[in-house]
Amino acid sequence: MPVFISQAPAKTILFGEHAAVYGFPAIAVPLNSLSLKVSFLAKPDQPQGTWMIRNKDTGMTALLSELPESDPVRKIIQFTASELNVRQLPAAELLISSTIPVASGLGSSAALAVALIRGVSQFLGFNLPPQRISELAFEMEKIQHGNPSGIDNSVIAFNQAIFFVKNQSIEFLSLKSPLTIVLANTGIHSLTREVVGEVRSKRECEPERIDALLSEIGQIALKAREKLVQMDLEAIGSLMNENHALLQQLGVSCPELDRLVDTARKAGALGAKLCGSGKGGNMVALTTPERAESLQKAFLAAGAVQAISTEVK
Ligand code: MEV
To answer: Are residues 117 and 214 in the same domain?
Structure first.
């Protein structure tokens, strides 16, 4: 079998992070300008079960069996093979490379799960539909993040804009025209498991206040779905601003994210908010194609370690 590549995009949440965990609506879009790739090469001359894993970004090379049991790559490959009832893996070499920053709110762990599950199953002769890939990736996300909503694996496995409500069937959104967004990275790594856990603890202490905030965030996602269908950019932008204010009250922002959100607004963005679990990572600003470059420059001048302008379809 020649080399084949399995690829998965990054994602950003336009509305509803954290609220999604508690069953409130949220909206996420794939970001195809960032991706994680796994290339598969069959090694028929090697003994069965020999899987060599190389990571182009970290320089790591190891046999699958030598990776720690807790390593996500090992877990995902073994889980996929076991779900497919494949006991002996034909020998292979895998090369993983990614342009998605890790622990930064852009779905790097879900992209790894989706790309590996799709690639491993294809390599073993199975052609799984996106729904099944998403379900398997969700199992891996639960190990990684504790109690995720399933939004990351869904948007990445389907590679389409989604209106998401936990445990309900996914609604795909078709955008009339592309949205121009700029992502700015604080450079602070933040673990979804920890931030989601902090929100859970707060909710236990102050159930009424936290539930009111989460429900308001869900209402914003509902309004945003309508505005996205109409492509009312001004309204979408101001809903993003409102969503950020609620995430601040939820305690998941940080001074670095707030500074970049402020920079976005001063530089003429239509709206801006943190994206993903928060407490670091990225924020997302909605803008126009004409203003994207100046916004990118403003973010870098304000201390962002990376600013990416991209179109969302
Ligand atoms: C993480 O990308 C989004 C969160 O809402 C967690 C989740 O929905 O699983 C913070």
So the answer is: no
